[in-house]
Structures are given as structure tokens and as C-alpha cells.
Design a protein that fits this description.
The chain has 315 residues and is mainly α. Helices cover 55% and strands 4% of the residues.
Length: 315
């Protein structure tokens, strides 16, 4: 394997070559991956050389963490790397140290406690209010039993922020129409009482009065609110199919996932001024940190408005 050995110390060049040969012969690593690993290892060796280190046995944990910082900061010859690319290069360097330790080339693996940076949290995808309304109107309120069921399901998902599993897990006794609340059973068996909007209650009432009995007549009796064509509890997969059909019929360009209405629920509440801890309770998050990812969405929205509306935003 070519590692531009002439630019490395003989000791480092030798162990890197052994490692790449090991990956090629014993692991069957592809040529493209080996080339990528070789580039990362050359950069690692160059960094070590810049700190006066020419042998792997001389490396300490601080040099490994320093290499990660150098990857993120860049230098005269290299641009700063994104977190994912820096993590990949660090993983390669750790692999070199583990290999050297297993082969008895060094007495300890100094990378054991050095971990790649976590990738940034992906922001939840949320629909805007107009898109949600289009989605909810796909199934007409004057339709048959299936339309009534599917409309009620979507209304409940958006009105309560329930997970799909929580919505299909609803029993009739979980609904308190006079109090305008539903009891949701979340992860780990935890329960929470969540308010429901009037449109969702109206859609649910229409389904329970004019639609559910049609499905229930085909089954053996179940307390479930949402039933399938056989009169049994609607499955998560079937509920997801309802959402997917509604998205296709409403011609929403954005990708729609099982969590789309839950994400939209949280984002719209925060944009409307709701406190993040209130939203945490409504979503059933154990930690407010989980909920705070939604605040990033609203900050992005505020930034877009600021840039387009403020006369000095782009001065």
C-alpha cells in the first residue's frame, strides 16, 4: 500500500503499511476505502511529526485529542473538516492504534478514552400550518366510515402531538370529551393527560358515532378507538399508510414520516409562544434537552424572517 512513506518517519510508515495490508488481506477492505484510510493516516502522521513524534509508541492521549482539534480547526495546508469527516479520520487513527496494540507493537492503546465527535442533531421536519390543513382536509368530514376514521386519526395526531403508536393505542375510556383531554400511553408505560382541540374532538365524535360501529361489527369486541376493516385495533403500519396516503393526495412536496404531525405540533406551539417545558410535557419527553431541538427549528425560522425583513440584516 502506498502511503507516501518518504514523507513519514520510517517507524510510522512501517506500522501504517502493516495496518493497511491487514485491512486489505484480512478484512477485505475495498481499494477506495483503503485510499481514504491512507490519506487520513498520512495526515495523522504529519500532525504527529509536527509535534516532534516519529513513533507510535511515543503518542499519548493528548496528541490524539490534539489531532481531532487540528482536523476541526484546519491549518495552512488543510481546510477545517466537518464533524462527520473529522470523526471518520479519528476513527481511522484509533484503528491504527488498536491494531498496533493487538500486534504488540505498542504497550498500550492511548485512544481508548478518545471518542469521535457526535454528529449534530438532525432537525425534525415540520410542515407549515397551511400544509397541515391541506393534509387534514384530504378525508372529507361527510365521507364514509374509513374517511371518518382516517380524518379523526390525523386530527388527533396533530392536535395532541401523539406518537402513532400512542394514537392507535387509545381506548374509548381514554377520551374525556367534556374535559377535552385524552390519556396517552407513552414509552416505558408512562401515561400523560393531553388536551385536545375542538376540531379533533368533532372529527373523533363523527367517527365514533357514524363510522366505528361499521368496523366493530366485523370484530369480536375491542375497546380500541381506531379499528381496521376486520374490527381489530388499527396497527401502526396501517396508521402510517393513512398518513402516507394523505400526504400523496394533498400533494405536499416535503417528505412525510410517521413523526411529521408530532414535529409540526411541537414546532407550531413554540412558534406560537409556548414554553419549551410545556411542550416537553405535552410530548412526553423525559428530558427537556430532547424537546429543545425544536427550538432550533424556530430559531432558523426567525433568522429567515430577520434576514428578509430587516433593512440592515445583510449590510
Amino acid at each position: 500500500m502506498s502511503t507516501d512513506a518518504e514523507t513519514l518517519s520510517p517507524a510510522l510508515a512501517a506500522v501504517i503499511s502493516q495496518y493497511l495490508d491487514h485491512l486489505a488481506v484480512e478484512r477485505g477492505t475495498s481499494a477506495n476505502t483503503l485510499d481514504s484510510y491512507a490519506r487520513d493516516l498520512r495526515r495523522y502522521a504529519a500532525y504527529l511529526a509536527s509535534t516532534g513524534i516519529g513513533e507510535l509508541a511515543m503518542v499519548r492521549e493528548e496528541q490524539v485529542t490534539g489531532f481531532l482539534a487540528a482536523l476541526r480547526d484546519g491549518d495552512a495546508e488543510h481546510r477545517p473538516l466537518a464533524a462527520s469527516s473529522a470523526a471518520r479520520a479519528l476513527v481511522v487513527a484509533r484503528g491504527l492504534h488498536r491494531f498496533a496494540f493487538r500486534e504488540g507493537l505498542v504497550s498500550t492503546d492511548v485512544t481508548v478514552d478518545v471518542h469521535p465527535p457526535r454528529p449534530p442533531k438532525r432537525l425534525p421536519k415540520a410542515l407549515d400550518v397551511e400544509e397541515v390543513l391541506r393534509l387534514l382536509d384530504v378525508f372529507p368530514a361527510a365521507g364514509g366510515p374509513r374517511c371518518l376514521r382516517d380524518r379523526a386519526l390525523l386530527e388527533m395526531l396533530y392536535s395532541t402531538g401523539a406518537r402513532i403508536s400512542e394514537a392507535v393505542g387509545l381506548d374509548r375510556d381514554d377520551i374525556d370529551a367534556p374535559a377535552r383531554t385524552v390519556l396517552l400511553r407513552g414509552k416505558g408505560g408512562k401515561q400523560r393527560l393531553v388536551p385536545v382541540g375542538r376540531p379533533a374532538l368533532a372529527a373523533l365524535d363523527a367517527y365514533l358515532v357514524r363510522g366505528r360501529s361499521t368496523f366493530a361489527a366485523r370484530g369480536r369486541g375491542t375497546p380500541a378507538v381506531f379499528l381496521n376493516a376486520r374490527g381489530a385495533r388499527l396497527s401502526r403500519q396501517s396508521a402510517w399508510a393513512v398518513l402516507r396516503e394523505a400526504a400523496a393526495r394533498s400533494e405536499i412536496a416535503a417528505a412525510v414520516s410517521p413523526h411529521t404531525l408530532r414535529h409540526s405540533f411541537a414546532t407550531h406551539l413554540l412558534e406560537g409562544g409556548a414554553d419549551v417545558r410545556v411542550v416537553q410535557e405535552l410530548l412526553g419527553h423525559a428530558s427537556v434537552t430532547t424537546t429543545q431541538v425544536y427550538t432550533l427549528v424556530t430559531v432558523d425560522n426567525l433568522r429567515e424572517v430577520y434576514v428578509t425583513a430587516h433593512p440592515r440584516a445583510q449590510g
